[in-house]
Design goal:
The chain is α/β, with parallel strands linked by helices. The protein is built from 17 helices and eight strands. The chain has three domains: 186 residues, Nucleotidyltransferase, domain 5 (2-Layer Sandwich), CATH 3.30.420.10; 93 residues, Orthogonal Bundle (DNA polymerase, domain 1), CATH 1.10.150.80; 91 residues, HRDC domain (DNA polymerase, domain 1, Orthogonal Bundle).
Length: 394
């Protein structure tokens, strides 16, 4: 069923308000746009399994349901849907259960797909026929609507099975903390002042060059947002770096730079951004990014900890990357060798699920309380064992 009148939509909301949980999914398109276009919202709760056409109705009244902390909202891989729903309704989405995050804590891999979970848990093979369909075109075909509704048809059953598995393993709190972290990031406003940090490599650039790069990265993001075009179509990353190395002074200078020939009416604002970067007081420029000095100790100890993490993650049936990346492991080692100053890495933070899952074990390895031992009968051929020497007391 597809809802495309405001009256039917409001009647649906009346029914949803009495439900303890509801499944939600969104179809959207981002090709050729800065802002992903919300094309369909699917909801399953009680006897309702419906698709809502946001092109035909005002979704704002749905915000009261999404923000209601007494109603559990079940989504799969929610980090993309949450900002779209919040923008369309004007309210944040609260009290969420993300089946992808939950599944990662109970042995389904780091980022299990919804189709995979439905197959494993419900024994249902979902069609992939409309996976790359055009959700903007109207009217939608019956096959498109059926495909979209399948994304929520089994979602509550999947969630119930995952909640039971989390409870059996005692990991409800871990999953809840991970979902809270996802929600915080999904609702966080875009920080344009840090966009330049993604335009690396930045090592070797002067503070002044970084100041210009920061300003033009901010300019590109605002320009792309205002004309609703992808960032790279406004100005490629490499063109922004070239602006930092060869700051243009005139429109003719901009026209000579590769990749900037289509800036058009954005040239004056681009030149203004460059001037801001050039005229910024020295003390307000971004700090120069110093390369991390090569330290063989960090690399060797990090490799040891990466093995310990794999062993611990295997025992928990959690993908190691879900707990910590190689870079985060190296940060942990560097922090340990520096005397464990504040602030501490996330994996070492008391109360965090990463520390409960593997951080305690990694810290014990660093302190000498645990060691790695070749053990052929162990699942990985290597085991974490209590060390024969007393651990370091901290």
């Amino acid at each position: 069923m597809i809802i495309d009148t405001q009256a039917d939509f409001l009647a649906l909301l009346d029914r949803l308000r009495g439900q303890p949980e509801l499944a939600i999914d969104c179809e959207f398109q981002r090709e050729g746009r800065y802002h992903p276009l919300l094309c369909l919202v699917q909801i399953a709760a009680g006897d309702d399994i419906v698709a809502i056409d946001p092109f035909a109705i005002d979704l704002a009244p749905l915000g009261d349901v999404l923000a209601d902390p007494s109603v559990l909202k079940v989504l799969h891989s929610a980090e993309n849907d949450i900002p779209l729903l919040a923008s369309a309704t004007g309210q944040p989405v609260r009290h969420v259960f993300d089946t992808q995050i939950a599944a990662a804590f109970v042995g389904h891999g780091a980022s299990p797909g919804y189709t995979l979970l439905v197959d494993r848990i419900c024994g249902v093979a979902l069609s992939k026929q409309s996976r790359f369909t055009d959700w903007v075109a109207r009217p939608l075909a019956e096959e498109q609507v059926a495909y979209a509704l399948d994304d929520v048809r089994h979602l509550l059953q999947v969630a119930a099975a995952l909640r039971a598995d989390l409870a059996r393993r005692g990991r409800q709190q871990w999953a809840a903390l991970a979902v809270d972290d996802m929600l915080t990031k999904a609702h966080r406003p875009r920080d344009r002042a840090r966009l330049y940090l993604k335009l690396g490599p930045l090592k070797g650039m002067s503070a002044r060059q970084l100041a210009v790069l920061r300003e033009v990265a901010d300019w590109r993001d605002r320009r792309a947002s205002s004309i609703d075009r992808p960032l790279q179509s406004v100005a490629p990353d490499e063109a922004l770096r070239q602006l930092a190395f060869e700051p243009p002074r005139t429109a003719a200078d901009v026209a000579r730079l590769r990749g900037l020939q289509r800036v058009g009416s954005g040239v004056p604002s681009l030149l203004a951004a460059v001037r801001r970067g050039l005229e910024l007081p020295a003390e307000a420029c971004p700090p120069v990014i110093e390369p991390r000095p090569r330290d063989d100790r960090i690399e060797i100890i990090a490799s040891l900890l990466a093995t310990a993490l794999r062993i611990r993650a295997s025992e928990l049936e959690i993908a190691p990357a879900m707990i910590a990346s190689r870079y985060e492991i190296e940060d942990l080692v560097e922090w340990h060798l520096a005397g464990r100053p504040e602030p501490m890495p996330e994996i070492a933070h008391p109360g965090g699920w990463q520390r409960a899952a593997a951080g305690e074990a990694l810290l014990a390895v660093l302190d000498g309380g645990l060691s790695l031992r070749v053990q052929p009968d162990a699942p990985n051929g290597v085991a974490l064992c209590e060390s024969l020497r007393p651990p370091v007391v901290r």
